[in-house]
Amino acid sequence: MPGLARKVVICAAVDGLILQPLASKKDQRSSPLVKLKYGDASISSVSRDSAPDILKSTNSSFEAFGIVGLVTVFSYSYLISITRRQQVAQIRGQPIYVVTEVALTPCSSREDASDAVAKTAIAMSTRAAGHLSSDESSSEDESDAPAGPEVADEVADEVADDGVDHDGEAEWSTAATPNTTARSSIAEDVISRRGSYGRFAQRWFSRSGWAQDQKRSMGLSPEQTEHAVIDSGAAAGAGKGQVKSVPRTFPLPSNVAENEAAIGLLPKLLRTTQIFFGSSRTFYFSYDYDITRSAANPKVPAASLVPLYNHVDPMYFWNRNTIQPFIDAGVDSLALPLMQGFVGQRSFTVDSNPPQTDDGAPKGSVELSDFGSNKSDSTPASPRPEKASPDTRPSEKKFDITIISRRSTKRAGLRYLRRGIDEAGNVANSVESEQILSPSDAMSDPTAKIYSFVQIRGSFPLFFTQSPYSLKPAPVMQHSPDSNFAALKKHFDGLRKRYGSLQIVNLVEKHGVEAPIGRRYEETVQRLNEQAGSEAEKVAYEWFDFHAVCRGMKFENVSFLLQILGSKLDSLGSTVEVDGVVTAKQSGVLRTNCMDCLDRTNVCQSSFAKHMLDLQLRAEGFDMAAQADQENAWFNTLWADNGDAISKQYASTGAMKGDYTRTRKRNYRGALTDAGLSLTRLFNGMFNDFFLQTTIDFLLGNVTSLVFEEFEANMMTKDPAVSMLKMREQAIELCQKRVIADEAEEFIGGWTLLTPQVPDTIRAASFEEAVLLLTDVALYLCRFDWNLDKVSSFERVDLAHVQKIKFGTYITSTISPAQVDEMRNVGLVIEYKPGSTDITRVNTRSMSTTVSGKTAQSRGGGADEVAVAAAAAEAETKSGPSAAPTGIAGFLTRRPQAPPPRKIALKALYSQTSVADPTARVGSPGEHDGGGAIARLTEIQEVVVIAAELERLAIRNQPRLAGKKQDEVGLIEKGDIISLADAKRNTGLLEQLGHSIKKMVWA
């Protein structure tokens, strides 16, 4: 495949930001250049001769190890480049790196770009001068390494003397002896680091909090954002640079004042992006090796000639959206794919004929490699030459064990904000973990076998949610059983196509709050198996109550699960590769889940992996049960690090039960640590995750810049994978079937609109989304339970009773810019005089209903009685209340003879949403875009269409208006429902204060 640039020189020229990709020092002068123009994200290629002399100045340019891509909010573009990295593994002779720092360079003006580039260059050169080792420039491979040790800006303030950094992850020393044991404590996440990995919890424990960020320049590298300017004179005298505080404000371009909400949140977005891609230390890459594909899932051979970005698995290509401008420009050498997850490697030695007596150092212990851990901030070194040990036994052999965990970009996000499944069958926290066993000399031995074993984890393939405001919230099931079954079937069909046979391992409780979703899962899988065409298509299901079996901290009882699934594991086997050719392939996969697919899942997956490792080594002639070292600390630590990494990416803290994974022992200290981790997860779920989830969706391209406008309004994030357009269409269809009892009524149309939760009001503290149905004789306002896909209640109004229809500005809140836009906040009010044919029906078979102002409990069942109630209403109209059949669930009222007029207030939904939908745009009715999709109506257009249809049909149903011209009838009135001025006057201090507090907390 075409090579990727090992380095990229970045500088600011007069007419754009220039990038020079460097494959190596040899072709440095001949590499083409790429230019980003100021003011937008356009990219063009330029010749090397046109590059300015600024490339030669270390203060005006800097070298990056790759390009993450461009982040663009309206006309503001920022280049994301990798300024620091660390080698964490070597697979098939190719190095694997983790990103440890990125720099964001503004591309909107030369002044901003030059300033950012210069400051980044100064910081990098200062760090290199202070920490560059004497042998770093000895080879081309080493010259690619970042200059000197580092400490992640937001994750670790300093590295402790004991070799453990402050996010609780081990730092391996290059001088470690073979018997050195890694020290790592999950408790540091809570006690020392406050669980701040990848989140912002530490801000809340600091004195200044988020005020620090307001003093930083968000377009620079972390060094500049920490206001660091090194006094070189003082450094020469004292040996250390003196740091001077230089507070700065974020240099927003002044060319256009676009969306106020998005621009207001831009500094926070850029800082979050910087932490997400850099300081979180969760993104991995290789210049020559595809880390996104397991040995059992290789790309077709023809793909060897295509660029790496075209070779990787799209499911694990995390910067596809941000790097797309470079792909479109044809700059393949800069399109560096990143994968989020974990990569770790350890070396160990085993003996095919271990001594039966203690004759020295124990065999089978770990030998720490230079890149055995991805937690150290030290500069990666080249692999050490093999040194023959004086007591090396001929029967010994050295192996490398590597874990690669790949987080899916589908339904990606954070705990509680991304749960369950989506309509396409993608589940939250979907992770593929591959364990690779290879001889350390595999590259020099073409007959060496490389073993690969793959497991997966993922959330329940069901629709459900959980509240973030509880330590152990009960799962709330969503949607109908048929909808859940359809999504689950898509999920398992996709897994079967990718992996082969499937074995489910469900670890949730069989009693308590987790039991209902576990039973629903079991029932849905049984339904799937009943419809399977053959035994091979059935999904094996094992429900192992981890907490019950391991009660009393007896986690060793996981061995019972291994006994149950041992034969299944043996039958699945491993993928075996010899000299690049797959000679055996794993026939299936274990899909493990607990509630979050973190803690219990990692304990069990490590046990499965150890079982398979023993089988693989036995096939190589080594019996692990006979080794002198039975601790296997190298294996346990590697899997514990893997569990911590996945947990931190999903739940903000290290994995619980990590002490058992590391030591195979459990005590009260581990239980106390887990309690602290639970509190930290609760804190992050309540406060820190909302904006980060918004940022993740934006960087993945799931949403547009409008998401920040939506976030500004309610400080919450929506799930872009949920197709609200499809859900609304289904709700309209369901309401039509349920509430229109008279088949003689002609259905005209249906819409989803906002309406006050309190009927017969215009102003309300809260609004809900309801369905409006229109027939030739009546209108129906249906209040819908969107979680259960049921009609909660409906109100029927005879069109003959409609007296006035008013449409215009409808401002319901003034706390965000989007909510005060008079062109987008519009609605209509339908005023009618109630009659005997106008009814209100409440479905008492919903989960809960309000009947005459009181709450009635659910009685179970469906919503089919809505149509029955409509028939009862017709009977009562004809024969009086006594004619209504008894025993009908619901509430039916006969209107008084001279009731006061009533109102139905409806507000249009925003036609433009943040969900990235290239087939839909705002335009005139019936207008088509280039792709043939019909454009959506604007808010005012939709309101006018509904009002016109209502007036036309109301006139037809009122004999007193027959024969009159439409302009003489005057049912439609144009005017403000709630004007902006009125809304501002009625916005209370409490509402403003509440939003200000929410904004302070979440934004």
UniProtKB/TrEMBL annotation:
A molecular function (GO) term: phosphatidylinositol-4-phosphate phosphatase activity
GO BP annotations listed: phosphatidylinositol dephosphorylation
Domain SAC: 279-652
Name of a matching Pfam family: hSac2
GO cellular component: endoplasmic reticulum
Polar residues bias: start-end ranges: 174-183, 347-356, 371-381
Region (Disordered): 128-153, 164-183, 347-402, 876-899
Segments traversing the membrane: none
Start-end of Basic and acidic residues biased regions: 384-400
Tree of life domain: Eukaryota
Residues of the HSac2 domain: 722-869
Descriptive protein name: SacI homology domain-containing protein
Organism: Cercophora scortea
The organism's taxonomic lineage, starting at the top: Eukaryota, Fungi, Dikarya, Ascomycota, Pezizomycotina
